[in-house]
Structure formats: C-alpha cells, structure tokens
Q: What sequence folds into this?
C-alpha cells in the first residue's frame, strides 16, 4: 500500500469513547444500526477537513462541537489519534484535542510526532501546540521554532505547516483527502450522473457522480488499461454489455453511450437503471489512477444486485493496494465475499460505547470450515447483531 494509517483512536466523539481501531488496507465495518460505523467515517472526514483548512466550516455544518460530543455529560473534549507506518522502523503519530469553548470550539492541543521503534525508542515533535503555544521542527536544519506569522486559531497547525517541511507536508497531504464520504448516489431524473457533463481535469468521479463522465474520459485517454478493466467489470455483471463510448454533445460537454448487444441503439444515462449507474460509478472510482490516501464509502451495496457484490469486493481488494478503504455496510451478502482480516465487527458495550474487533482475531477457524462469514454474522457468532 502506498499510503494509509495503521491505527485510529478516538475518545469523546458520539459513541466513540475509548475507540481503538487497528487499520489495514481494506476495512469493512459491520454492525447493527447506531453502533458507530458511520461515526468512524465521519471522524476521518473531520480529520481530513482539519488538514485541508476546513475544520471551522465542517464543524459549523455539523451543528458545532456540542453536537458531536459523547452524550454522557462527562466530557467537553474530543481526542483523536492517528498512527501511520513509515520506513525503517519509524512511525508518525498525530494527536489533536478539540474542546468546547463557549458556543464554539478550541484546538486545545495538537502534535505530530516521529517515533522510532528501536533500542533508543526516540520521539521527535515535528509539530507541537499546547494552549496557543506552537512550535514547528524544521527538518532541513534540525531547528524548532515558533512561527512569526499570523496563525488562524480555528484551524490546525498541521494545515498551516510550511509546505517546504517535507515530513509534515507529506502527512498532511495523505490526511487531507479532498472528497467526503461516498454515500448513496443521487439517481433522480435531474441528478448530475444522468446529465451531460463538462469535460474537466478530475481525479475521481465525485461523491455524487458529478464528474463521472470527465473521469471516464480521462481514464480512457490516459489509462486505456484501466478503462478496459472498467468495461470488463461491466461485462462480468451485464452479459449483454458490449462497450462504452463518450460522444461529445456540445462544445466541451460529453455524455455516455452504453452499447448493448441486444439493442440497435445505445442506452444513455437517463435510461440506465439505478443499480447500473451506481455500479459504474463505484467501479470508476475504484479504477481511478490517482486515488487519495483514504476512501470512505457508506453502504456500497445500495441498489446493487447480490451477484454484483462479489465483483465489488474484488475491485475493492485490488484498489486497496493503492489506497486505504474504510467501508460501512449492512449487507450480509457483501460480507460473504470478504476475508476475516478485512472485516471489523462493531458492537456496543454495557456503557453504550462502540467497541470493535477484527473478525480474524475471533475464534472462528472451526466455524469457517462449515459456514461462510455472512452466515456466522447472521447466526450471531461474530457479534455485530441486535
């Protein structure tokens, strides 16, 4: 995997109290409604926004920090910690604590630490911020200093790090992935995914398919092997599918033409089914050549025929070689096609807090000889049920 994180810890965010989640390239979260699966995706979205200079606007959009705090009346702070593996027995650890301050919030503390794991076990603060006192470590001359320029107190020190500081900036870029969570695709008659789209430089098809055609056009022109892989995936689930074309409909605008072997005329986006559009959108996303460090997908199974889910699992597994995938699902059929080390079971403890456990850490080897993962989930053997 080219980039990603190996552990997420959260304390004080809704039901995520003392959450400790080891991460792998592909992470599929299962569990009953209300156990915190979507909250894990929201935490990554919030951290991405904070690294991209959008913390204030994102908190405002969600109703402020008070709407995110654990509802036990015992905390007015949210603690986040992310760990990232690095070469040569070194890890990068990022900490941030947000606290309630009147009707707003404050960044109470923040740190980016390079940690060596050898006999010396040394730590180096690349960023340290405590109660308004901020220092950066310049790895070019090995000097710590306090910035002499204005600092935005509502945004993180990580976002405001000088861009020439390679280690800090590399971490920031991985965390500051621009897309939000991929939720259910809008496929209403006037949805962006059903209309002609302007050709523009993009890296993904967009969280609502608003760049799907531009993304397909770019992949076809610059990465024909990936475009062929998208068409192969479509043929695997739609036996009569022949090919995709992207005809120009006006200056700078393009549409999609779906050629079916049984029809004399192509099918256009406004005629395609919801499930077909969603599968095309997800397949294009997973085949995009310049994926961000992390991709968040909520309920990818929506509108998809069960037979599509096997191929979707394979596509996610392939994409996880290049990006880290964090998925939340309710689909037992989708779970059937996963490996135990890809599955994270979410439950609530006696205090109502989220607890997580990877299925590969459960004692299920004997069960797996006779049952599939989805059957074990339905039977309650691995948890994650009401």
A:
């Amino acid at each position: 995997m080219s980039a990603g994180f190996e552990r997420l810890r959260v304390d004080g965010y809704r039901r995520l109290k003392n959450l400790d989640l080891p991460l792998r390239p592909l992470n599929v979260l299962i569990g009953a409604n209300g156990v915190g699966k979507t909250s894990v995706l929201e935490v990554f979205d919030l951290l991405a926004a904070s690294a991209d200079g959008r913390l204030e606007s994102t908190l405002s959009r969600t109703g402020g920090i008070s709407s995110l705090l654990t509802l036990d009346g015992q905390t007015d702070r949210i603690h986040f910690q992310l760990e990232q593996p690095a070469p040569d027995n070194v890890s990068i650890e990022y900490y941030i604590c947000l606290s309630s301050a009147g009707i707003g919030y404050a960044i109470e503390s923040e740190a980016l630490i390079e940690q060596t794991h050898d006999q010396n076990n040394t730590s180096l603060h690349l960023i340290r911020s405590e109660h308004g006192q901020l220092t950066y470590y310049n790895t070019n001359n090995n000097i710590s200093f306090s910035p002499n320029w204005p600092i935005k107190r509502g945004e993180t020190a990580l976002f405001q790090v000088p861009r020439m500081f390679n280690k800090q900036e590399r971490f920031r870029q991985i965390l500051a992935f621009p897309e939000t969570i991929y939720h259910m695709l809008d496929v209403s008659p006037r949805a962006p995914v059903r209309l002609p789209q302007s050709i523009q430089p993009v890296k993904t098809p967009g969280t609502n398919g608003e760049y799907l055609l531009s993304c397909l056009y770019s992949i076809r022109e610059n990465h024909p092997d990936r475009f062929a892989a998208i068409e192969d995936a479509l043929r695997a689930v739609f036996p009569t599918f022949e090919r995709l074309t992207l005809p120009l409909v006006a200056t700078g605008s393009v549409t999609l033409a779906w050629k079916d072997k049984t029809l004399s005329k192509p099918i256009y986006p406004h005629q395609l089914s919801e499930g077909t559009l969603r599968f095309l959108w997800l397949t294009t996303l997973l085949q995009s050549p310049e994926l961000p460090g992390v991709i968040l997908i909520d309920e990818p199974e929506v509108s998809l025929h069960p037979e599509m889910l096997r191929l979707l699992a394979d596509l996610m597994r392939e994409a996880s070689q290049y990006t880290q995938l964090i998925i939340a699902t309710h689909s037992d059929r989708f779970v059937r096609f996963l490996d135990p080390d890809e599955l994270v079971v979410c439950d609530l403890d006696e205090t109502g807090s989220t607890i997580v456990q990877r299925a590969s850490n459960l004692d299920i080897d004997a069960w797996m000889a006779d049952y599939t993962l989805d059957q074990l989930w339905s039977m309650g053997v691995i948890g994650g049920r009401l």
